[in-house]
Amino acid sequence: MYTALTIFDSALAALRLVLFVLAAVAFVVFALDWLVRTRRVNPFGSIAKFCRRMVDPLIMPVERRVVRAGGLPTSAPWWTLVTIVIGGILLILGLQFVRDMLLSAMLSTRSGSRGLYHLLVSWTIGILQLALIIRVLASWLRISEYKPWIRWTVPLTEWLLRPLRSIIPPFGMMDVSPIVAYFLLMLLGSVLHSIGA
Predict the structure, then answer these.
(1) What are the tens digits of pLDDT across the range 47-106?
(2) I want to staple 63 with a disulfide (CB 3.0 to 4.6 A). Which of 30, 76, 116, 192 is the partner?
(3) % of the chain exceeding 70 in pLDDT
(4) How far apart (Å, rounded) are the C-alpha atoms in residues 190 and 175?
(5) 84 and 133 belong to one structural domain
(6) Are both 72 and 122 inside the same structural domain?
(7) Do 87 and 10 sit in the same domain of this protein?
(8) Which of 81, 110, 139 is the last residue of a domain?
């Protein structure tokens, strides 16, 4: 099993390098496209033809969203770059999370039933905290709770948020109940770990 983790770590390190190189190349390409769009480079030259033929079709979905949000089409290359970088970071964090979960599962199975109990508690609290974070980010970005990739967070968190909202008043426009819920989950995890010790 340790061999598999070593291979996974090597693949993750290679993926980090590939994503860094991809982000650097994307920066150069999107900077050229931005220069063409803002007419800092000849809009009829070979660079402009390359950008219109190869880059602009890739940017088109982002450009549509930027324009719908009231932004300028010239900022679409930078928003595309931001999307690529954030997507790469989230991919690496997700794979690192899977690696850590596999390692903790492997170590817990060697500790017998007590280790499995601690693993179950850690995973349950971790999933609930992740659901809280996703739900808060979705509310900040004004993404509907009915989207398929957010919908699962509502039943996992509403049982805790609803009573907290009735007790804790909002501070201005800010609802602090998710912050309190996050720390309550941390406290619950500590208590459950100490019970199983």
Answers:
(1) 989 988 999 999 999 899 889 888 899 999 999 999 899 889 989 988 888 888 888 888
(2) 76
(3) 98
(4) 25
(5) no
(6) no
(7) yes
(8) 110
Let me know whether 100 and 130 are in one domain. Answer: no
Global pTM? 0.69
Q: Which domain-ending residue is among 110, 143, 172?
A: 110
What's the token pair of residue 35? 């220069």
Helices (DSSP H) in the chain: which residue ranges?
2-37, 46-50, 56-68, 76-110, 113-140, 148-151, 153-167, 177-195
Q: How far, in whole angstroms, is CA 19 from its chain's centroid?
A: 15
- Give the residue from 194, 44, 38 showing the smallest Cα distance to 121: 194
Residues linked to residue 171 through DSSP beta bridges, in sequence order: 174
Q: Please indicate, yes or no, whether residues 101 and 118 belong to a single structural domain of this protein.
A: no
Residues 6+ apart with CB under 8 A from 194: none
Q: Any residues with CB less than 8 A from the CB of 101 and at least 6 apart, and which?
A: 123
Handedness of CA 98, 128, 168, 146 (dihedral sign): positive
Q: Are residues 138 and 103 in the same domain?
A: no
Q: How many domains does the chain have?
A: 2
Place of tokens 């809280």: 132
